[in-house]
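Q: Got a minute? One more chain.
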Amino acid sequence: MAGLLAAATTAADKRAAFRAGLASGSVQRFPGAFNPLVAKLIQEIGFEGVYVSGAVVSAELALPDIGLTTLSEVTERGRQIARVTDLPVLIDADTGFGEPMSAARTVTFLEDAGIAGCHFEDQINPKRCGHLDGKGVVPTEEMVRRLRAAVSARRDPNFVICARTDAAGVEGIGSAIERAKAYADAGADLIFTEALYTEADFARFRAAVSIPLLANMTEYGKTGLLTAKTLESIGYNAVIYPVSTLRLAMWAAEHGLREIFAEGTQAGLLDRMQPRSRLYELLQYERYNEFDSDVFNFSLGKDQ
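A: Always. Here it is, folded:
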């Protein structure tokens, strides 16, 4: 049953793998998963980790990414995804869902959910998508308190606490670099620099900050889409593709629904659908059948 109903790898081992990956010299690629089935696909294809985006959790609930989701909603989606994959899961914890004490509580919830790491951002509440204009950031000292509270609540020392700074688009890259250094001093293991524009910006950040760095390669934002190989050559340790799978799925769903509405049938869409056999393969139906046979292949004898 190992790896069937749940991942075969323990949460502790996933966290250790995340730490090792960040120190490996190879960029760790974390596509976003909008549900557990996508997480299984990410693992099968060979990526190093799975990302759970706050923007995606919001969008799934038909809400904008402005801090409306709750700790329990985000944790539960993270738990569902972490349960099915042997890969480490990094999750978006927004601003920590409240004051510094709330950030500490968030860490305990996410650890219990089997998550490998999370990131907190330095935006003010209500937060907004990092690639939209009009963002605001809290004073550096407030974010440092947020991070220190999170670090103090960590029970597994391998749980990765990442600090995201949105300051580059508000105060400039120089300020973002100074914030990153302060966040590292506060105990952050990884720095997420949001909404940089160019490859040179990424290189400047890498030259100035000594701890591991994460890049966000989201589509339609302010950042040019650099390849994983380019980011690795600059010296970045991890990259996320937060909304890519949701955008792909929603594009396909919308076009398919419009055709069904117009034509009255899905017959013309079959070559754009995942076949039942492929879904069953991903779900490991055959292994479930084998397990059922092993468990239930008995017969009741007559009373003695």
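A: The chain has two domains: 11-244, 251-295.
Q: Perfect, thanks.
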